[in-house]
Design a protein that fits this description.
This protein is of the alpha+beta class. The chain has one domain. Helices cover about 35% and strands about 20% of the residues. The protein has 6 helices and 9 strands, in the order βααββααββααββββ. A hairpin with a 5-residue loop joins strand 2 and strand 3. The N and C termini lie close together (about 10 Å).
Amino acid sequence: MGTNFYLIAPDPRQNLVERIARWVSSLDAPHDAAQCAAIADGIRERRWSCDEAIVRPQPGLHIGKSSAGWCFSLRVYPEDDNAEREELALIGVRKIMSLDDWRPLIEEHGVLDEYGDVVTPEAMISCITKRWFDHPPSLATAVAAGGIVGPNNLVRRKIDGRCVGHGDGPWDLIVGEFS
């Protein structure tokens, strides 16, 4: 059990051209015009399908998951994460690889938990960075759970194909879908 957190999805009806331009200008290499056009078409399609939607915050990119006794699972989005490319473009970034990458996005867009409740940016950052557990896990318990002993009496994920790194505090960097 735990709680998942999501960036509030930007309303695609607002600042559409500005977000596309910011994303395209962030590309290092010469951009593939067809790729940029396909992303813009996807954003326009989403925009039209949202025109009749009730205007209320909708969950966007998955920020991560808080589980009791574990380091926070902070979702990262490598540049080659094609599944999330359109959502990354909507917020004007190409990749998210660290808490430092998440901080300005959390401040700018806001956060929803999996129940649809708004979480303040301060509370979200605190949930990630100020984690602890009352009782230290034994090495046997951590290993049995698929992890290692981490900071602040927490279990930390082992670096493998899903966990690509450990944060400077009680969070792990996780790629791919999880809940």
